[in-house]
Design goal:
The structure is a single chain. With about 210 residues, the protein is an alpha/beta fold. It contains ten helices and five strands. A five-stranded mixed β-sheet has the order 2-1-3-4-5, with helices on both faces. Helix 8 packs across helix 9. The relative contact order is 0.16.
């Protein structure tokens, strides 16, 4: 039973490596259907005056990827940013900078997932309203995958989609470092780590890249 929220001192004692280990152990409990119960009322009361999350996770909006559950986390544990296709933009970069430089989080985790609809749409060159501009963030990953995977370069090719999902996570991490001097310097100084993984819809397991 989790009934104690993360405090500033507890957060400060964590390392990027220990936070990642904690999330992966939580994912193992999730896969085993052995989630930790929480005293929600107590955690709500404890975090009313402040929060000290250990990580910020950038995820897709997909309803099949419930981020806190996937890592067996509860109130006050993690910041979560979500956008279809889990890519960075100015607002998300600012949110990550706040999470780490202001609020003290130790880890940035970019989480892609199997059979991502936004990735499939980018693979197929879908054009529709604001979705067109959104998918342009994922297109470079699809272009890279087309040079790495044999067969047709569209969503009918499962291997092509899977490679695009991976590439999208990797390219997002590269752009986070390029576009945020704050996060890059924090990582260079060992204060945070910026990592990526892919969630399996079929098993619930997160595989780190």
């Amino acid at each position: 039973m989790r009934n104690t929220a993360l405090t500033k001192d507890a957060q400060a004692s964590l390392s990027p490596q220990s936070v990642l280990q904690d999330l992966l152990e939580g994912n193992e409990r999730y896969v085993a259907n052995n989630l930790t119960s929480s005293d929600v009322t107590s955690l709500v009361q404890q975090t009313t005056g402040g929060q000290f999350p250990k990580a910020v996770i950038l995820s897709c909006i997909d309803s099949r990827v419930p981020v806190e559950l996937v890592f067996d986390q509860t109130i006050g544990d993690v910041f979560v940013a979500r956008v279809a296709g889990n890519f960075e933009n100015t607002d998300i970069l600012g949110s990550m900078e706040y999470s780490c430089a202001v609020a003290g989080s130790k880890l940035v985790l970019v989480l892609g997932h199997e059979s991502c609809g936004a990735v499939k749409a980018a693979c197929d060159g879908v054009e529709l309203g604001n979705i067109t501009a959104m998918l342009s963030n994922i297109t470079p990953a699809a272009k890279m995958a087309s040079e790495e995977v044999e067969g047709v370069a569209d969503s009918s090719n499962k291997e092509f989609v899977a490679k695009t999902v991976e590439n999208n996570v990797k390219l997002t991490i590269e752009r986070i470092r390029e576009k945020s001097k704050i996060l890059q310097e924090m990582e260079d100084n060992g204060e945070i780590s910026i990592v990526g993984g892919v969630y399996s819809l079929s098993t619930g397991k997160v595989n780190m890249l």
